[in-house]
Design goal:
By secondary structure, the chain is α+β, with helices and mostly antiparallel strands. It is 32% helix and 20% strand. Helix 1 crosses helix 3 and helix 1 packs across helix 8.
Length: 428
Amino acid sequence: MDLGKMNHKKYQAYKDSGVDWLGEIPKNWEVLPGLSFLFENKEKNKGMKRDTVLSLSYGKIRVKAEEELTGLVPESFETYQLVNKGDIIFRPTDLQNDKVSLRSGIANDEGIITSAYLNLRLKPKADTNFYSYLFRAIDNNKVIYGLGSGLRQNIDYRDFRRFAFPFPPKKEQTAIANFLDEKITKIDKAIAQKEKLIELLKERKQIIIQKAVTKGLDRSMKLKDSGVDWIGEIPEHWKVLYNRRLFREKGRPITNPDELPLSLSQIDGVIPSESMKERSLSPAHRKNFKLCYPGDLIVNRFKGHLGVFFESNYRGIVTFHYGVFEPEKDINTKYYELLYHTEIYKTVYAGASNGMTIGLQNLSNQNFYDVKSIVPPKKEQDEIVSFCTNVESETQKVINSQHAQIEKLKEYKATLIDSAVTGKIKVC
């Protein structure tokens, strides 16, 4: 799909719309206040006329699944608004704090929706699909944030009654909406294909890494039974040892009050932590903290079942929620970070964690020590780390490229919608 300049025709003649955000519009278009062609539907679901609950999510109106309704009192659905196909639903709250979410969507199903939303219904003189796209345009352009006074975080139907909308002839509205339906479908399909490719790249990367850390890089090496069912076969000269032989939490006194506060991110690993700086770092409070060095293996005890093990690149302090394990001789901590992020080890650590529920699981030192790990020679650990680092880097380059293309497609989509519904391009 060509993402360069849109090669669309212009209208023969334009005029000043008299509206700052709209600029010039085609000469045969009008500018009308919202009250002339749309109204607010406030019809309640009295007597439970309908039971299909709708929700606005990522700019689309979807039907809520049964499991999402857990905890809601059925009687409360009588206060919900009735929604017809073609209604435009708008989320009018929290404008100042949320300038990212898509706030509007068109209903493709009959149902009910909470009265926290605006339910806008169009008169016959207007094309619903066209104005659904127009609402998306003013949402993308953030024109909506100019409504009401500067201190208001909410808007209501009164703001749309006097809002100046472009109003093409009805046939032209329909033609523009049909054009956008076709183009947006193609763009969304292209985006979905790239998102699927990203997931496939991530899966492929993980498969390659798992093979490397569990079977080595030389496919000609003879294999042997590891003696552990869930590990399976390993290269003949590799070992399997309990973690207590590989890592130990030895404890180090914290004598420097200015040690760097650290935390652990599931995405970025061990990182300097601003949030921890807000806590008390008094000598008494620091008794519960732990000092870690570069090369240590850090684990969030409450997320050990998720494979949240990372090598630290920093010297600093972490809270008592973390395990800080110092590697023994001939141990490359990064290799074990990679190993413990494989699905097989995530499963093992989930089973080794104490707790009745996932959210309350706690991986104790003893349970960590009792897990068996694969142990290649140090030289091979280093080679595997180098190989996997290269795989991750090259994969991430391709993923970043796909993300960049997705962003361009989204920008193109927003520009196309805006240009078509405001008459900047002629599509019919």
